[in-house]
Specification:
Blueprint: E1 2-5, E2 8-13, E3 15-18, E4 33-35, E5 47-52, E6 55-57
Antiparallel strand pairs: 1-2, 2-5, 3-4, 5-6
Length: about 70
């Protein structure tokens, strides 16, 4: 799934399901889906990437401490 934030794009891979629709506005801390969990290992692995236009950006700058 790809979400556009003005000049920026966030990319999410390995989602089990997505809870937002195309064209829908999303807000900070809003759930956008569920990460897939491997039933045999119990492991969940989300791939998260950020781009400014086509240039990769460090995604750590976009993560919020909980």
């Amino acid at each position: 799934m790809i979400i556009r934030h003005g000049q920026y794009f966030t990319v999410y891979s390995n989602l089990k399901d997505v809870s937002v629709q195309r064209g829908q506005q999303v807000s900070t801390m809003q759930s956008i889906g569920t990460v897939y969990t491997d039933s045999s290992t119990g492991e969940s692995d989300l791939e998260f990437k950020v781009y400014k236009s086509t240039t990769p950006v460090d995604p750590q700058l976009w993560l919020r401490s909980m």
